[in-house]
Amino acid sequence: MFAEAGLEALDDAGVAPDEVEALYYGNFMGEMADHQGHQGPMMAEAIGADGVGATRYESACASAGAAVRQGVRDVRNGEADLVVVGGAERMTNIGTAGATEALSIAADDLYEVKQGITFPGAYALMARAYFDQLGGSTEDLAHIAVKNHENALENEHAQLHREIEVEDHQEAPQLASPLGLYDSCPITDGAAAIVLASEDYAAENGLDDTVAITGTGQGGDRLALQDREDITETPAAANAADEAYDDAGIGPDDVDFAEVHDCFTIAEVLAAEALGLFEKGEGISKAREGVTTRDGEMPINVSGGLKAKGHPVGATGASQIAQITMLLRGDHGRSDAVDGASTAVAHNAGGTAASTTVHVLEVSD
Amino acid sequence: MFAEAGLEALDDAGVAPDEVEALYYGNFMGEMADHQGHQGPMMAEAIGADGVGATRYESACASAGAAVRQGVRDVRNGEADLVVVGGAERMTNIGTAGATEALSIAADDLYEVKQGITFPGAYALMARAYFDQLGGSTEDLAHIAVKNHENALENEHAQLHREIEVEDHQEAPQLASPLGLYDSCPITDGAAAIVLASEDYAAENGLDDTVAITGTGQGGDRLALQDREDITETPAAANAADEAYDDAGIGPDDVDFAEVHDCFTIAEVLAAEALGLFEKGEGISKAREGVTTRDGEMPINVSGGLKAKGHPVGATGASQIAQITMLLRGDHGRSDAVDGASTAVAHNAGGTAASTTVHVLEVSD
Known about the structure:
- Two copies of one chain form a homodimer.
- By secondary structure, chain A is α/β, with parallel strands linked by helices.
- Chain A has helices at about 1-15, 30-35, 40-45, 65-75, 95-105, 120-135, 140-150, 165-170, 200-205, 235-250, 265-275, 305-310, 315-330; strands at about 20-25, 55-60, 80-90, 175, 180, 190-195, 210-220, 255-260, 345-350, 355-365.
- Chain A is about 35% helix and about 15% strand.
- Chain A is globular and about 55 Å long.
- Chain A starts with a helix and ends with a strand.
- The mean pLDDT of chain A is about 95.
- Chains A and B meet through α2, α3, β2, α4 and β7 of A and α2, α3, β2, α4 and β7 of B.
- β2 (about 55-60) of chain A pairs antiparallel with β2 (about 55-60) of chain B.
């Protein structure tokens, strides 16, 4: 899978594999799902770049986001001119129960997992607290799922191409109240790769149709929900966004659209609020009101998001960057939705956002 | 364990935990040994730095080396002024068989592990090829083990404080011929942490007794031994060394002593040759000849090395830097051995050196 993604990215960039100077690679559950750690060198070989420095990043579901961040930093700081950043995850081979067990390892083992909480339960606690303190209902969440399923219909890289209605969401089996089946992203096999080039390299080698990553941010939080002051917000994401905006010299008002980490519908709400796209407590209704739909003022997850594009855990942070790049360039099935857009953000969260990265992408001149 | 190491490092540097801007953390088998991935945020909290960006690096036994490399790059490039780099590994809780199984995940699962090769077997193949093509004997290896056990006697952080003789090595049970029990490092629980500060931060905050990391290098190779041209050498390490030397503006002739990744005695030989300290084929006899002993021309593994200091896998790359720092500063039980030394290298290898980092340390003015 990673060979396919990596070689497609290199081909798209018009760069030969032997030009690659380093690989920054995200993977979360390789030890559990494939009995294979130390995947960095293996994946460099898979894309024809064996011999380069190749490191695996693991930050739960934000593994590739962490890899993107270091790739961006190293290229802009002159440590390398041409690198590949990406990730891969195989999950279906260990089944739903196996994947749920493997995913749980991203939570605090002592205070969460051993007490019986896996991620549907953890995000259910966050949703319940949000509803209690700030308002909202499962019908609000339904509109997020409906939107993301609809968005994915024209995304050739999406896992799910199936329209759903609010009623489907409301009548679906519960996972952990108030979250039901359609509040959760699916279990996904997948890979993503992007080519990062320095401005000089891109100019000298005639790379065209480039998109610039102009800002990077990372934030952290305590791993266990019980150790946080307020589980209706995600300060790790807010801090990452502040850093990324500062880095890019923009603010949330400059953002035209966003790809955010909607592992569960409620996570999309928390992400959008942390990114400063909406005030706290106001994000919950934005899909229902049509603000975050494709033709709304602030389209979110035009790709279909984790909900319908899919969530190959260790690849997701790179997938978001790839999707935004295609959307901004106009070669994505949903590019119409962001016609004229010049600035987008990608938000990738690990665990219950205990580690989060935010990147700002802008169409380069 | 990581809290202990991290807080000791911060205390040694005279820096408060809330000064820490980011954590670069190495761990290899947390999923297998502790049912705990996503350890970055957890370890940031453990050292009182919760909320900072915290990423786990996994590059098998070179996990902490990869973390050190990114920490060094980010600090010298102005991305941060004060960061903690380290790693931790708990191995004994899953027993020898469990640890051997977990370690095997760093090898190529399809072409090595499923064929029955774990690391003692892989390094035995390398030793056998070396003996066949370049000469040497198990008695040469014995002198490496004897030297490293002896060196560890005065290292308060070492796991094994027990002198051995050549005869002990020769009479010990075989693991995988030609390697026996005393050719292998032990299974270790441990943690290591170092504080990296920018030159400006160090000057402004009066940090004293500092050591400079002046060069960083990383190399890669194909994961499986069968895919390599010559298993009597480790080009990933040679490439990493070349990069690190170039970066520091030195050559191997400038190196006063080295800490290298002797997970097996033969690995010390391959490392020293890759670092350019000896010609290919000449490293095997250097312990026997007294060249790499504490009073030799080129002391190697004055700390006791992985062999006797111990090998807490995800911490080892940071442990080497910490040991060299103490040796150069004169506050290590074996500092006498490197009296007057100003330049040292640390070599950290993952798998059969499929991923390797090399760092150059110099006493700063």
